[in-house]
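Q: I have 265 residues here and want to know how they pack in 3D. Can you give me a structure?
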Amino acid sequence: MNSQQTIRLAVLDTDSGFVTVLAKRADAAGWQLRQATGAVPPQELVAMKLNAVLVDPAVLGEEAWNYLERICAELPDLGVVVCTGRSTVAQRVRGLRFGIDDWITKPCHPEEAMARVEAVSRRHRRSRGDDGPGPVTAGELEIRPDQFQAFAAGESLDLTRREFELLHLLASSKGQVLERETIYQRVWGYAMAHGDRSVDVFIRKLRQKLEKRSPSWSYIHTHFGVGYRFEPEPAGILEEEIHAAAELKFTDRSQQLHDEVTVNS
């Protein structure tokens, strides 16, 4: 999940198990989620300043179709996603034609529901000319959240979705040390299990791709026992510091030996 864009979502559903898991993942992604067990008047939806609404028509009873058609007509900037049980082709076609943005069949994974809500919200932002956050640049790196792509020295890093989300999270928190648990919750969407090394594995893959495209820069720094920090630095800085320290140590030792010889003489 791309947690950089806060999404305000209303869920009209009585499936407590599904909504509970969805709420936990939405919270971990930085979303704002409101739940209702029945129809919410359009003016109240406006007051909530929502990006999208996720609806199970089964909870709305006989008025479900009228309600859905009404909010699609009165709130064209609101993303509307239906998430329900079995339905007919005729029902899905009818809904999509009068303005429903997406239709998901239960049972479905909460992460898929969130991805679909995110996609719908993104399409609505673009239709309004609001493309969200602009590109992030650092060193030779350019991250484009609107395209879910990152480039180093003008060449694509060919990142997977998870790798991109991880890199964007780190770059958006430039200079801050992010703990592994925090990274996992923000990128994977749930608590990290004890002994899970996924963050370290993905960091290693990211570093390999960054080093391949931008070998003269170092971007991700390890804080052992804590987590990682994003800070673009010329790759030679660390080596130069080590060399300078070694040279200073050698000079000090040479001076010490010279002083000892002088004294003994």
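Q: Anything worth noting?
A: The radius of gyration is 26 Å. The chain has nine helices and twelve strands.
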